[in-house]
Design brief:
The protein is an alpha+beta fold and 211 residues long. Helix content is 21%, strand content 32%. The protein contains four helices and 13 strands. This is Lipoprotein.
Length: 211
Amino acid sequence: MLRKFFLFATLPLIAACSSAHNEKKITDTDSTAVAAVEAKIEAPSPAYLIIPGKSIGNTRLNENLDSVMDKLGRPDKSDAAMGSSFHTWFAKHDTADYQTDIFAHHNYDGKHDDISYVKVIRVTSPAFKTAENLHTGLAIQDIARHFKLNHVATYTRGADSLKVYYDRQAGISFEIDNTGKCTGITVHQAGDSTMTYLSLYPDRKRVDIKK
């Protein structure tokens, strides 16, 4: 709490200095000060940490789906076909609240054909954060400072559109709404191109991207 108070208390001072010296370029000293403030941001607890290409909170990629359900409980919505399945959990079981989505499928490798493995994890709650303190609600510009984003899909519903950007090599995707804000974060295997064709929005129409 003290850290947050210190940060908010210094904002007016920083703004005043900026106004008085609006022609001043950013110096090494300024950059060091900004880095020092950012370093004070506490990392999220493991239960809310987003690790690109690996996990979100306590749910890991390639984890047995049965194990996930033991932890999260019975999903509020499920859909399955051809060895793949999609499951949704709503906070407080309220469809208007934040949600967690998991896409899973069987490997059919002849060894564990009966096991469905987690391949994609998506969250909409801002409580989940990356080590860089990135979470839903932030602007795409904030996210682009830390990841190499590529626009891979656009999904529409009436006049509303949702754009999906992903960093394939990192294994993370971000959905951006009409205002330029992030509304969902997805983790998938690093180097996997699944997000270029997988739709997590059954109520929306996919629009091809013009190259």
